[in-house]
Amino acid sequence: MQRNGMSEEPDIKSRLRGISILLVEDDPDTLAIFDLFLTHMGATVATATTVKAALKMAEEVQPDILISDLQLPDGNGYDLLDMIRKLPSSSSKLIPAIVMTGHSTPFSEPAYNQGALSGGFQKFLAKPFNIDELLAAIAEFTRGVDQDAHVYCCDI
């Protein structure tokens, strides 16, 4: 990526290297694109298409951050986040989370944003969104992660 004649990709790659992401999206094409892109940017990505699969993956992987679609075939992102934060591992209780949806409009976006924040998410993204916004949020919310050990070193 180029901005103002300077490449930002190495900086973002270094910030995402070692970050474990649980990506939950029911649309297979969207899931594949995000998975490929985030992996290319240096993150380790585990994917799921349902709440049930995401819970299993969260227990196995203990991700540093959750990125979830709001509406899933067997539930929603709010319920998923609540269930993940109730898992026994201490890191799951603190997991930062980003929710995204393609069901908002410019008029409903503030309500979705407020609902996401009050529902425990740190960031709401309306699809389609600028990928830089997603990358910046991942980097911001995972700054307290020990990049090698995948353990939180600070309160979030």
UniProtKB/TrEMBL annotation:
Gene3D superfamilies: 3.40.50.2300
Pfam families according to UniProt: Response_reg
SMART domains linked to this entry: REC
4-aspartylphosphate, modified sites: D69
Alphabetically ordered keywords of this record: Phosphoprotein
Residue ranges the record marks as coiled coil: none
Residue stretches making up the Response regulatory domain: 20-142
Superkingdom, natural source: Bacteria
InterPro entries for the chain: Bact_response_regulator, CheY-like_superfamily, Sig_transdc_resp-reg_receiver
PANTHER family xref list: RESPONSE REGULATORY DOMAIN-CONTAINING PROTEIN, STRESS RESPONSE REGULATOR PROTEIN 1
Name of this protein: Response regulator
Organism field: Trichocoleus desertorum GB2-A4
Source species taxonomy: Bacteria, Bacillati, Cyanobacteriota, Cyanophyceae, Leptolyngbyales
